Amino acid sequence: MPDPTTQANYLQVYTTHIDFDWTLDFANQIVEGAATHTLLAQEDGVDKVIFDTSDLEIRKVLVEEHPVEFTLGAKHEVMGSALRIPLPRETKAGTRVKITVFYRTTQDSTALQWLAKEQTQGKQFPYLFSQCQPIYARALAPLQDTPSLKITYTATVASALPVLLSAIRVSPPTDGPAHDGKIIGKDVVNYVYKQPVGIPSYLIAIASGNLRYKPFPEIEGKDWKSGVWAEPELLDACYWEFSEDTGRFLAKEEDIVGPYKFGVYDVLVLPPSFPYGGMENACLSFLTPTLLAGDRTLVDVVIHELTHSWFGNGITHKEATHFWLNEGWTTYIERLLQQFLHSPAERGFQYVIGSSALYEALGNYVDRPKYQRLVIDFEPGEDPDDAYSSIPYEKGSNFLLYLEKKLGGLDVFLPYIRDYVATFQGKSITTWDWKAHLYDYFERHGGREKLDALNTVDWDAWFYGEGMKLPVEPSYDTTLAESAYSLAALWDASRSIADVAKLDFAASDVTNYNSNQKIVFLERLATYTSLPSTHIKHLGEIYDVATSTNAEIRLRFYNVALKDPKSSAALDFTDHALKWVTGRDGTGVIKGRMKFCRPTFRAASRVDSALAKGYFMQSKKEFHPIARKLIEKVRRKCSHLLGSSY
After folding, report:
1. What is the pTM of this model?
2. Which entry of 38, 281, 558, 610 is 20 to 30 Å from 538 by CA?
3. The 3-state secondary structure of 228-279, one letter per residue
4. How confident is the model at residue 621 (pLDDT cuts 50, 70, 90)?
5. Closest Cα partner for 469 from 566, 569, 364, 395?
6. Taking the CA of residue 318 as centre, how many other CA atoms within 13 Å lie in the half-sphere pointing to its CB?
7. Is 132 known to sit in a ligand binding site?
8. Angle at Cα 43 formed by Cα 42 and Cα 44, nearest 5°?
9. pLDDT at 639 over 80
């Protein structure tokens, strides 16, 4: 069956390669140019190709260099407008056809965010970045926007500001002068890139701004290169945060799962409106600036993004229904890497941290239990972003951990992982492809004993189970969490003491905690009945968690403070939280990462919907279009639940 999120006829004829020729127009906030597709027909007599588009202005189409008439369908709210282009009558299976579409984006593009210079770190030049996952590449270019296809691409981009793409730079050289030595913001330079490895359309990415590069130390025996891009004002801080670990993470991952295929692994630290923690764009992971904690405690996001080079970018889910294959596998391997780099206790600790996000996400979908599933059968035209949460990450990784233990532990499971990667690298697959390979592998490497173990798995419960519990209760190594658990229990037991001056707590309680232990402490505390408001205020002050510059800690504190929406603590801290998330706290920096902005607006709206609405409307345009869309859905849901004008 075709991907339900696309209108393209990719089962009849599909793109194998695209050549992009773009000009960036910062004044009008558009990308203008052409996309030349090399198509391969899959059947005789196919008479047209259908591309996905969304809010694109199509200007002209050439088929084998000859102008043709085309039709652009009505806009579907989720899937956009189908672009139908006639093919030559003699097209047969195996025929290759070249089609060039001349077009430009519009300011309604969901894939692109154009930032004014005031929204950047340096405040001298504007900025552009894309976000094409899950189905927004169609708002950047006309194409068959489905992860079922793997395409290669080249691009020539004319711009007055430095340009980065999810590909290998051909010219000007990365290690040369910025902007090829020309005047940034004035002189136009042609940037040329190539992506020789087939990737799904959602990994096509572009960024442009006042960007600089700093290479990471080379790893002996490795021929791939790695480094960091950022605005010059942040470059040194970004280099310090990521230079020590990125190369060794990537090298260790190769030891575990096999060679890195993309040649270059760079990271780009984006402005704060970027809606995710990271995005695994090929050759160039996009990262949120909220990772700049100053202590390297949040660099595990880099492990996650580079792991996608194998699980997602290499082995890709065939459609949104099987998205867990990307994120579940990546999260599982990311945590396995923690064990090899640090200890089994560190691996278990990451699962402890993730469990809180899992149960929160399951709770958010109690009214839409379909999205609590691991395998989600999307209807044609259903928005996959409606199901975006921690569930595919956490439920998927717990499922793989369960299988690892059931099949005999890491000594048995690691060789299987390598075989899985070797078998499917470069392909798009379904859950059923994965399951068939799992059975086949363990039939060949274990026989009846392993097949009997697999046959005891309740597959339907894992794939289609709903509700607030996993099919099998997980057990983790909680060594690193025990101290945090104990401290949370002491706070819970202290609620009977009305006078906070008599509480036996001090800043020294958490002096030896790293950031992750503070997070686990706050997450554990949030599982108890809400503390008295005086306790919450005292907690925020003595541990500095109410003013922490670490966004992960700050979010967890607000989860505690706003848990009881009728408490005086919630009333006091709602304005506090809204100022923080919208940058009205004196920093001028919004928390555009959806991990932070969505739950903060959700919690604040339960306390004071009018206040939350006011803050959102003031800062609405500063959030990325994807985040904006999903926060709007939170607003509508809250309006329904609260019966307010919100």
Report:
1. 0.92
2. 610
3. EEECCCCHHHHHHHHHCCHHHHHHHHHHHHCCCCCCEEEEEECCCCCCCCEE
4. confident
5. 395
6. 18
7. yes
8. 140
9. no
d(CA 478, CA 465): 26
304 in a known ligand binding site: yes
What distance in Å separates the CA atoms of residue 183 and residue 161, rounded to the nearest whole number? 9
DSSP SS3 for 35: strand
Q: Hey, what amino acid is at 3?
A: D
Place of tokens 């500063």: 622
| Residue 277, Ramachandran bin (φ over 0: left; ψ between -120 and 50: alpha; else beta) | alpha
Q: Which of 127, 213, 393, 558 is catalytic?
A: 393
- Is-catalytic flag, 305? yes
Contact status, residue 324 vs residue 395, Cβ threshold 8 Å: yes
Collect contacts of 480-486 with beta carbons under 8 A, ≥24 apart: 480/345, 480/346, 480/348, 480/349, 480/352, 480/516, 480/517, 481/348, 481/349, 481/352, 481/517, 481/520, 481/524, 483/513, 483/517, 484/513, 484/517, 484/518, 484/520, 484/521, 484/524, 485/520, 485/521, 485/524
pLDDT at 542: 97
The token pair that represents 182 in the structure block: 């020309």
Q: Find the length of the chain.
A: 646
Structure confidence at residue 637 as a pLDDT band (50, 70, 90): low
- Helix orientation angle between 568-582 and 609-619, rounded to the nearest 10 degrees: 10
Cβ burial 294-306 (10 Å sphere, 16+ → b, else e)? eebbbbbbbbbbb
pLDDT for residue 644: 29
17-39 mean pLDDT: 98
* Amino acid letter, residue 158: A
Strands (E), 111-237: 112-115, 127-130, 151-159, 163-165, 168-171, 189-199, 206-208, 212-215, 225-230
DSSP-based three-state secondary structure for 594: helix
Query: Which amino acid is located at 285 in the chain?
Result: S
Mean pLDDT of 550-565: 96
185: annotated binding-site residue?
no
Confidence of residue 35 (pLDDT cuts 50, 70, 90): very high
595 is in an annotated binding site: yes
pLDDT in tens, 308-322: 999 999 999 999 999
Q: What is the pLDDT of residues 472-516, one digit of tens each?
A: 999 999 999 999 999 999 999 999 999 999 999 999 999 999 999
Average pLDDT, integer, range 382-400: 97
Which pLDDT belongs to residue 547?
Answer: 96
Residue 636 is predicted with a pLDDT of 62
Residue 431 has pLDDT above 70, yes or no: yes
Catalytic pick among 231, 253, 305, 404: 305
Residue whose C-alpha is closest to residue 601's, from 353, 357, 591, 641: 591
**pLDDT greater than 60 at residue 392:** yes
Q: What are phi and psi of 215, to 5 degrees?
A: -75, 145
Is residue 242 within 8 A of residue 268, CB to CB? The reply is no
Place of tokens 């079922």: 148
Task: Kindly report the backbone phi and psi dihedral angles of residue 597, in degrees, each rounded to the nearest multiple of 5, phi listed first.
Answer: -75, -40
C-alpha closest to that of 326 among 337, 317, 335, 314: 317
Q: 175: exposed, middle or buried (C-beta count within 10 Å: 0-12, 13-18, 19+)?
A: exposed
